[in-house]
Amino acid sequence: MTHQVGIRDLGLIEYRSAWQAMQHFTNTRDAGSEDEIWLLQHPPVFTQGQAGKAEHLLFPGQIPVVQVDRGGQVTYHGPGQLVGYLLLDVRRLGIGVRELVSRIEQSLIELLAGYSVEATAKADAPGVYVNGAKIASLGLRIRNGRSFHGLALNVDMDLEPFRRINPCGYAGLPMTQLRDLIGPIDISEVADRLRDQLVQQLGYAQQKTLAGGIEAYE
């Protein structure tokens, strides 16, 4: 077990605001800074990773496209999708990047198991899958041993915009969500369960809820 982690529940927040705040937090933190996990949702937006190829963005329409500094290809964020940003001192945690990805995936797998949904990870395609359909995406950036960006879990959203892209660079990749697997679901309940799984899988001794938004990091 290691340090305490702070949990910040941000609700619905514009993508660029969250991205800029993550960058600022990561750039200004020091060896004594506490790790944080931000849980939130975004208005509709496509985000294109550093290695993203334009051909995977098929017809975005009126949904904005943002080029960002995480790994991976293009994905979609929208209301009803639970996003978790992991602002972690990976060196202090004593784990490598591949191990970090595996622990995030395991958090999601255990979360879904709690709803009697059997999910798996793929060694060659980060994320979490149910019967071959992708239910959660991962995209991280490590800077000076600290991580930002994170995961996106489809809970109760409009999946249509995923058909406007090749999700994560895979043409025709089917997408699914928790609502379609188990019926109506409260995203706040899912957020609570995801928080607990992340805290456990990442080895934190304790967690605390952080008040306020991200104004100080913008």
UniProtKB/TrEMBL annotation:
<comment type="similarity">
    <text>Belongs to the LipB family.</text>
</comment>
<feature type="domain" description="BPL/LPL catalytic">
    <location>
        <begin position="31"/>
        <end position="206"/>
    </location>
</feature>
<dbReference type="GO" id="GO:0033819">
    <property type="term" value="F:lipoyl(octanoyl) transferase activity"/>
</dbReference>
<comment type="function">
    <text>Catalyzes the transfer of endogenously produced octanoic acid from octanoyl-acyl-carrier-protein onto the lipoyl domains of lipoate-dependent enzymes. Lipoyl-ACP can also act as a substrate although octanoyl-ACP is likely to be the physiological substrate.</text>
</comment>
<comment type="pathway">
    <text>Protein modification; protein lipoylation via endogenous pathway; protein N(6)-(lipoyl)lysine from octanoyl-[acyl-carrier-protein]: step 1/2.</text>
</comment>
<feature type="binding site">
    <location>
        <begin position="70"/>
        <end position="77"/>
    </location>
    <ligand>
        <name>substrate</name>
    </ligand>
</feature>
<feature type="site" description="Lowers pKa of active site Cys">
    <location>
        <position position="134"/>
    </location>
</feature>
<feature type="binding site">
    <location>
        <begin position="150"/>
        <end position="152"/>
    </location>
    <ligand>
        <name>substrate</name>
    </ligand>
</feature>
<dbReference type="InterPro" id="IPR000544">
    <property type="entry name" value="Octanoyltransferase"/>
</dbReference>
<keyword id="KW-0808">Transferase</keyword>
<dbReference type="Pfam" id="PF21948">
    <property type="entry name" value="LplA-B_cat"/>
</dbReference>
<dbReference type="InterPro" id="IPR004143">
    <property type="entry name" value="BPL_LPL_catalytic"/>
</dbReference>
<feature type="binding site">
    <location>
        <begin position="137"/>
        <end position="139"/>
    </location>
    <ligand>
        <name>substrate</name>
    </ligand>
</feature>
<dbReference type="GO" id="GO:0005737">
    <property type="term" value="C:cytoplasm"/>
</dbReference>
<dbReference type="InterPro" id="IPR020605">
    <property type="entry name" value="Octanoyltransferase_CS"/>
</dbReference>
<protein>
    <recommendedName>
        <fullName>Octanoyltransferase</fullName>
        <ecNumber>2.3.1.181</ecNumber>
    </recommendedName>
</protein>
<feature type="active site" description="Acyl-thioester intermediate">
    <location>
        <position position="168"/>
    </location>
</feature>
<dbReference type="GO" id="GO:0009249">
    <property type="term" value="P:protein lipoylation"/>
</dbReference>
<keyword id="KW-0012">Acyltransferase</keyword>
<dbReference type="InterPro" id="IPR045864">
    <property type="entry name" value="aa-tRNA-synth_II/BPL/LPL"/>
</dbReference>
<keyword id="KW-0963">Cytoplasm</keyword>
